[in-house]
Design brief:
The complex is a heterodimer of chains A (326) and B (89). With 326 residues, chain A is α/β, with parallel strands linked by helices. Chain A contains 11 helices and 9 strands. In chain A, the strands form 2 sheets. A 7-stranded mixed sheet of chain A has the order 1-9-8-2-5-3-4. In chain A, strands 6-7 form a two-stranded antiparallel ribbon. With 89 residues, chain B is mainly α. In chain B, helix 1 packs across helix 4. Chain B is globular, with a radius of gyration of 12 Å. Chain B starts with a helix and ends with a helix. Classes of the chains: A alpha/beta (326), B mainly alpha (89). At the A-B interface, helix 9 of A face helix 2 of B. Chain A: GO terms for molecular function: acyltransferase activity. Chain A: This is Glycosyl transferase.
Chain lengths: 326, 89
């Protein structure tokens, strides 16, 4: 990996392409024009993105190369066509996300793959059982949390995000009549935030957080093997789980043969570390999470929507640890 | 060591799972971080959560004061006492 890639823009610098502004604009346009009319426009936008964003093309090519080598599937090796396909899958994904946000993607249309009974526990939280944590990824459709909220039947779901536009998103949700899902902005772990989350969990609320993106100014990261190469993952979700001493489940939603499938997997019965073994414990969990993610990439190889340089093993300069305390 | 200090020392041991440490080992003036007991910022967070739950107090996040309260068991005990008195009034 050369220096140029290492100095690639951070994902947050992309200003959440297809995020708030696009959500608003498209939500409005879909209402006015309908999905069928909007789809060509969106395809054009993504086509422009494909043509103009050389680094994004290279990053997707790198992902496809690593996936092909890791899985030993020569058919997955990148070609100009396969990279383009992945961009188009993103356009498709954006349209689907709009449907999700508008409540058009109903739970009945989604196939649930839940071998360990995560949903049963979710429903138990209606009757006072303590909440749990869901770790989501940017593979497939992470906005499916919205459908999850429906699936949870009034069990409140708090989605922790690094986005600054939380208030606006919440208003958008409110307008859509969704009261069971709430976005909470997290920047650093602090006592007030942890206390709030802990109380929510005691009340039976669930927390969802992305496990595959490292926040810009967060030095708490851990580098593990992902598709055969070192990649940095955030420690935050796992520290949080350990502090809350809660069970952790993985949530991923992939489109397979034109239909969405929600994969729910119990990951940790209770996040706890032995004294002095915290870093090792977290590294172990993150490696296991990365392995799980790799396997899911194979189910839907073109739905990896991290367009920035994902494999950046460079450790950031060590931050003064104590600045995070209290 | 007064009763509250003992209680807090025990809470530290239980919360952080310090198996080979006893209350007697944690003198009220032993620094909790660095050289002393060797806690770090995540331990502090864990401890703060436990204290808030146990004593029903609020610990303001990221204030300089909060950090000072966490230097020793003695400073923690006087902080908890002050918070309780404030609530009682």
């Amino acid at each position: 990996m050369n220096e140029q890639i290492a100095q690639e823009r951070h994902w947050s610098a992309y200003k959440e392409r297809g995020s708030l502004f696009l959500m608003r604009l498209t939500a409005f346009s879909v209402r006015v024009f309908g999905r069928r009319l909007l789809a060509p426009v969106l395809y054009l936008i993504v086509l422009y993105f494909f043509v103009s964003a050389r680094s994004a093309r290279r990053n997707i090519g790198q992902y496809q190369t690593y996936l092909a080598a890791w899985s030993d599937h020569a058919a997955l090796r990148p070609t100009p066509g396969s990279v383009f396909e992945q961009f188009m899958a993103f356009a498709d994904n954006l349209l689907d996300r709009l449907d999700v946000w508008r409540g058009r993607l109903r739970f009945e249309q989604v196939q649930l793959i839940d071998p360990t009974g995560v949903r049963a526990r979710l429903l138990r939280s209606q009757h006072g059982a303590r909440g749990e944590m869901l770790v989501v990824t940017h593979l497939g459709n992470p906005d499916v949390c919205r459908a999850m909220a429906e699936l949870s039947e009034r069990v409140p779901l708090n989605v922790l995000v690094h986005n600054r536009h939380v208030a606006q998103f919440n208003r958008l949700l409110g307008e859509a009549g969704d009261r069971s899902m709430r976005l909470i902005q997290v920047s650093e772990l602090d006592t007030a935030m942890m206390m709030d989350l802990s109380q929510r969990m005691e009340r039976g609320e669930w927390l969802a957080i992305a496990g595959d993106r490292v926040p810009l100014h967060d030095a708490r990261r851990v580098t593990v093997d992902f598709l055969g190469h070192p990649a940095a993952f955030p420690q935050g979700p796992w520290l949080m789980a350990g502090l809350l001493r809660c069970p952790v489940n993985l949530l991923c939603c992939l489109k397979v043969e034109g239909h969405y499938r929600i994969y729910l997997d119990t990951f940790l019965a209770s996040a706890r570390w032995e004294r002095g073994q915290r870093d090792e414990a977290i590294r172990g969990w993150v490696q296991r999470y990365a392995d799980h993610l790799s396997a899911q990439c194979l189910i839907a190889p073109r739905q990896w929507f991290n367009f920035y340089a994902y494999w950046q093993p460079v450790e950031p300069p060590a931050k003064k640890e104590a600045t995070h305390a209290h | 060591m007064n009763a509250l200090q003992q209680e807090i020392a025990q809470l530290i041991i239980d919360t952080l799972n310090l198996e080979d440490v006893t209350v007697a080992d944690i003198s009220p003036d032993l620094p909790l971080f660095g050289e002393g007991l060797g806690l770090d910022s995540v331990d502090a967070l864990e401890l703060a959560l436990a204290l808030q739950k146990r004593y029903d107090i609020r610990i303001a996040s990221d204030s300089k004061d909060a950090r000072q309260h966490f230097t020793t068991v003695a400073s923690l005990a006087s902080f908890v006492q002050a918070q309780r008195d404030a609530c009682a009034n």
